[in-house]
Design brief:
Two copies of one chain form a homodimer. Chain A is an alpha+beta fold. The first copy, chain A, contains six helices and nine strands; from the N terminus they run H-H-H-E-E-E-H-E-E-H-E-E-E-E-H. At the A-B interface, helix 4, helix 5 and strand 6 of A face helix 4, helix 5 and strand 6 of B. Strand 6 of chain A pairs antiparallel with strand 6 of chain B. Chains A, B: It is an enzyme of class 3 (hydrolase).
Chain lengths: ~260, ~260
């Protein structure tokens, strides 16, 4: 259970400001799991951390808005998650599909600036539009051995910049999300320090893209991640980016002592 | 009329991929106006360029979701748009409020990649959420003499990254939008080449921010713009950015010869 929760938390934490240390809520043992989300299942129940009723919806599951190309790529990477060993037995490979929810867990005091009403309505930016296919459709896979992350992203019609084309800010949003996901998994809670984005060619709305992220290096608290956004067949480079994330704890973020 | 349409077009063009040359639709005379959107009114009616019924809604007008601070800043900059001369007469100063619509005008073949159905549903990314106050509430003012642009931005609850805080991608989206607006007004249709964003301190959801953009330099087709995002009283620096835009024509964007 904890393994599941930890993976969920780990992914949520890697969105936006990429999570935080959880000194007020989590035990040391739990925190160790958060920083190693691939660890085996822990018997400690942590369901009370999830503040909403029912099981959260994983928005990175296929839906009817996904184009055949999107589904094909999803199935390709999903198949890599269950590899077989030489005896033909199922065995977990280095790849993991990352779930994706529409809310960061209220595990910390993050809503302190908001009224109770607004806290309840707050949604993760990349999952805030409910209509399937209208905005960000994406699913991310992480390779813990190669320290890479690949995201299959279908750009919906509400993400328009120039007529018929994807807004540069929407591309930056996905790059920040995916690079941050990788950095968060490798180093625990992180925050974006910089994001340098080079736009090479415009992206038609409706396109399916691959967002490839790879760890460049870790220097102390600094995690450097590189990123390329290509067409789904990888023949066309649309965007390149370099991002720096910094490991943080919750203190500075919420104005309390760390 | 044309002056109005040209300003409208000019602002729309400066969003996302920041507009384009319009060889197939616009006359040379019209195009001159697009590149000089502050010119006086031209007698030629261009209403046929607007493909939707009725007058488009300017989403940068105050609404009930705007906080008192947002309204105060709006009124401050709006007052600068109507300056008085020494005789106490109303006189247009260097400041202009820029209107903001939820769709780029279908003046070109931008929807060529989309089905007719999706073309009709496509919306500008920063204006795609209808609920007032939920996402991007903003109004931009441009100073043609100083070659600067300032945007008052209220961050809604659907733009969440870490709990209670603005997503880094949402900040990048606004920076791309406002720096591109300035570049587009100064040099006609442009496209983002790079956007380098440094995140200095996290932004609580619900904050009102000022996004200050200033022309750095123009080198041929390259327009370099700097940007700072601060708290509404300008005491706190949240984000710094440098952007490069390149003047374009419509050809390369849509795969036709320029």
């Amino acid at each position: 259970m904890l393994g599941h929760i930890a993976r969920r938390l780990g992914h949520q934490m890697s969105n936006g400001l990429k999570g935080m240390n959880l000194p007020h809520v989590l035990t040391k043992e739990t925190h160790r799991h958060l920083q190693s989300p691939f660890d085996t299942i822990c018997p400690v129940s942590m369901m009370s951390l999830w503040p909403f009723s029912g099981k959260p919806q994983d928005f990175s599951q296929p839906n009817s808005s996904w184009s055949p190309e999107m589904v094909r790529l999803y199935e390709h990477y999903n198949a890599l998650c269950d590899a077989e060993n030489e005896n033909g037995e199922k065995k977990r490979g280095p790849w993991r599909k990352l779930p994706s929810y529409d809310r960061t867990i209220k595990y910390a005091t993050g809503g302190v600036h908001l009224s109770k009403l607004v806290q309840a309505k707050a949604r993760l930016f990349t999952r805030c539009i409910e209509e399937e296919g209208a905005a960000f459709e994406y699913v991310a896979f992480l390779n813990k051995v190669e320290k890479t992350c690949v995201c299959v992203f279908q750009a919906g019609h509400l993400l328009e910049g120039a007529p018929g084309h994807l807004h540069g800010g929407a591309i930056a949003t996905m790059i920040d999300t995916v690079t941050g996901t990788l950095a968060g998994y490798l180093s625990g809670p992180v925050m974006t320090a910089y994001l340098n984005t080079n736009y090479r060619s415009p992206v038609p709305l409706g396109s399916v893209l691959l967002i490839h992220c790879a760890l460049d290096r870790i220097e102390g608290k600094k995690i450097f991640v590189n990123c390329k956004v290509t067409s789904s067949d990888e023949s066309k480079l649309h965007t390149e980016a370099a991002a720096l994330f910094v490991s943080i704890n919750i203190g500075p973020l919420f104005g309390t002592q760390s």
